[in-house]
Design a protein that fits this description.
Blueprint: H1 7-28, H2 30-41, H3 46-75, H4 80-98, H5 107-130, H6 132-135, H7 141-171, H8 179-197, H9 199-204, H10 217-230, H11 236-265, H12 270-298, H13 300-319, H14 324-352, H15 358-387, H16 390-396, H17 398-408
């Protein structure tokens, strides 16, 4: 790996290794189970607690979607990208650690702290993603992005496995910890893992492409953002891709963030859910790297088609899901494509954007992705409450993948797009 990648590329990819611990332990596995148990103990119905989680995800994604393009435009100035990244990184790590100290039964406070942690995590990822234009070339972008996701899946399994072991030992009363406190320890492990392995990113990755600072930085940032919006015709391919991304990533994000809640509603035990999610991470790692390799041979867009089609089948299969075995099959299907579709979306977009305006455009990438993440969880939340059946909400996501697939087919390949005038 040292011979294939530069120090900057390795440091950038290692942040996926660091931050993915948050994604699996907080977003997908331990926290949702911990929260569902706290809500149940407080007398909240199962369908309602799932809905409240969906509403919470919608709230924090809405906040970040509003500020993403503005912060991204400011971050395009020399030296600003790393500062914004560091701020959100510290916010996310701090709030994740704080989850361990929320009093028992305070399910609403748990959701509030989770909102702050999620703002930090997703905010840092906006600038982390934008750094891809600074650390590598367009020729290597698919492979570097996919390798980052692959490392993320591998790295996240280590603190996840440690956390599972502690929780299981606590449940079996083999260590002097309650299951609740074992979960709290998992939150602290996540924060520590995230902080330690982010150090290379903070030390070695720097902003190569930038706009030189101007006297009225904030005012000029709004002017540039306004000019970009008004001149959207210059970037038709880019914004057409964002429209496709808006739809298909909605379904991807909703399935990932609420999968544990689905499993809980099906009556699958906490230990079974944790084991399934662990295996999903292990399987997802080589498939994410495989997507990157295949994209070099067949093209990123074709591989995005493959990922979307897999997710369409996932939605259909989820509608009929009833048993633990069904959930296993569903998880393995998701594992084959969740990393690949996210990695190639990031690298494909990175090849479309003007390099010195990467933060501004990745801000739009964020706003499209995050506004999409409002629609899916809200749809699932409302459907779960109205019908009392979460699987119907999952099935309804199929339309988003179909629309995304159709729009994506209209996006030209990056090499066929004429370079527009730089936005200054």
């Amino acid at each position: 790996m040292k011979n294939l990648y530069t120090k900057e590329e390795r440091s950038w990819m290692l942040y996926d290794w660091a931050s993915s611990a948050y994604s699996i332990i907080i977003t997908t596995a331990v926290f949702p189970i911990f929260y569902k148990a706290a809500a149940t103990d407080a007398g909240v119905a199962s369908a309602d607690s799932t809905a409240y989680l969906g509403y919470t995800i919608a709230i924090f994604t809405f906040i970040l979607a509003l500020i993403g393009p503005i912060l991204g435009t400011i971050a395009d100035y020399q030296g600003m990208k790393k500062r914004f990244f560091a701020f959100f990184f510290v916010l996310g790590v701090g709030a994740t650690a704080a989850l361990a100290f929320i009093p028992a039964g305070e399910w609403f406070l748990l959701l509030a702290c989770y909102t702050v942690a999620a703002l930090g995590s997703t905010g840092a990822n906006v600038f982390y993603d934008a750094f891809i234009t600074d650390v590598t070339t367009e020729e290597k972008m698919n492979r570097v992005s996919a390798r980052g996701f692959g490392l993320g899946y591998i790295g996240s399994t280590i603190p996840f496995l440690i956390s599972i072991a502690i929780i299981v030992l606590a449940q079996q009363q083999l260590i002097p910890l309650s299951p609740s406190n074992a979960s709290r320890l998992a939150f602290l492990i996540t924060a520590l893992w995230w902080a330690v392995f982010a150090i290379p990113m903070l030390r070695h990755v720097r902003q190569i492409h930038f706009i030189r600072r101007e006297p009225k930085l904030i005012a000029e940032s709004f002017r540039r953002l306004s000019k970009t919006v008004r001149g959207i015709r210059q970037y038709q391919a880019l914004f057409l891709f964002l429209l496709a991304y808006f739809f298909y990533i909605d379904g991807v994000g909703t399935i990932i963030s609420m999968s544990t809640a689905y499993g809980t509603d099906l009556g699958i035990g906490a230990i079974s859910l944790l084991i399934i999610l662990f295996v999903t991470q292990v399987v997802a790692a080589p498939f994410a790297i495989l997507y990157g390799r295949l994209a070099e041979r067949f093209g990123a867009k074709r591989m995005l088609y493959v990922g979307i089609i897999v997710y369409i089948f996932v939605c259909i299969y989820a509608y009929f899901m009833e048993t633990v075995t069904d959930f296993w099959v569903l998880a393995m299907l998701v594992a084959t494509s969740q990393g690949g579709i996210q990695a190639l979306s990031r690298s494909y977009f990175g090849m479309l954007v003007p390099k010195q305006n990467s933060n501004e455009f990745f801000g739009f990438y964020n706003i499209f992705g995050k506004f999409a993440s409002i629609m899916g969880p809200l749809l699932v939340g409302v459907t779960a409450q109205v019908t009392g059946d979460s699987s119907k909400g999952v099935f309804s996501l199929i339309i988003l993948f179909v629309i995304g697939l159709v729009i994506l087919s209209c996006v030209p390949e990056p090499e066929k797009i004429a370079e527009p005038e730089t936005v200054l």
